[in-house]
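Example 334, ligand oxa(dethia)-CoA.
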Amino acid sequence: MSLRAVITAVGHYVPEKVLTNADLEKMVNTSNEWIMTRTGIRERHVMEHGATSDMGAKAAEMVLKNRGITALDLDLIIVATVTPDMFFPSTACLVQEKIGATNAWGFDLNAACSGFVYALTVGQQFIEAGRYKKVLVIGADKMTSIIDYTDRNTCVLFGDAAGAVLLEPGEDGKGIIDHKMYSDGTGAPYLYMAAGGSLHPATHDTIDKKMHSLYQDGKSVFKAAVVGMADVSVEIMERNNLKGEMIDWLVPHQANLRIIDATARRMGLDASKVMINIERYGNTTAATIPLCLSEWWHDGKMKAGDNVVLASFGAGYTWGAMYIKWAIDPPAGK
Ligand code: UT7
């Protein structure tokens, strides 16, 4: 059997404070009914103190504990995020310091909501090349730090969280089997944060114009996401000869319940095989997929040998899907 990158442990972190739809009704002209029917979101978590690296470090520590190793065992840390603590140094360096992973190097990767699947694909290459034995892949975003809480179009959608997985080499047929990633920069005008970069450095004017907050043309992104996420999921099924009934779990990016449902329908999947937690967390960008994996694994719902498909779509546009043969048995007692 060929060498594969295997997810051998999972972890996550979600801040305690909850922002409900009822809270948002008091802040902008919206309603629980609108948010639930249009998005499927009931509440989201908000980090009051600290930054993305703090959430990433906590998710990383859960991974290390679950695997029974220390941070010194790590070779490489990849952090997918669009809300780094600061432009530089990288959030990966800050996580490395916080967990004490002094033998690891690391870097950040920005692919917005597809950040985790992109980062997992990058980590996979280092393992398959035989160069590294333990690669930590983190998806973490403090989306509330770039949200304008007077803009009802976006403020109801996002929340804060981190998820992480450990990749190690394996040769028993389990692990990451296939991936297909896409980028299309013509999607850039529909989902972005305009200022703070080299195009529009921070000025009083950029602040007055709210250019440091996320902008989304929801309808345009919705149309592209429904097609993109479903198409790439079907593509990964077809080229791996997977029929709907052979898939144990679809792990979709959690941006909108209607996008998730459309993808599952195109794949011929029963709703019971789709990981959905958008109701409790909203869209946590790079964290949605590892957060699902960690929650479902901790609940004892995943077993070694399961066929798992990850699928994502986000700003860029970026999108992709991965086929994984799951390798970890449920936790003791589950
Ligand atoms: O994760 C990265 C990728 N992102 C996505 O995949 C998100 C894709 N887009 C979406 O999920 C949806 O487009 C949204 C949930 C953002 C919006 O849903 P929609 O069904 O596309 O609504 P819309 O933007 O077409 O707005 C419909 C109406 C508008 O009013 P008018 O112009 O018809 O009078 C909006 O002003 O709903 C209004 N609206 C709201 N009303 C109450 C927009 N936001 C709200 C709100 N509460 N929070």
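Summary: The mean pLDDT is 97.
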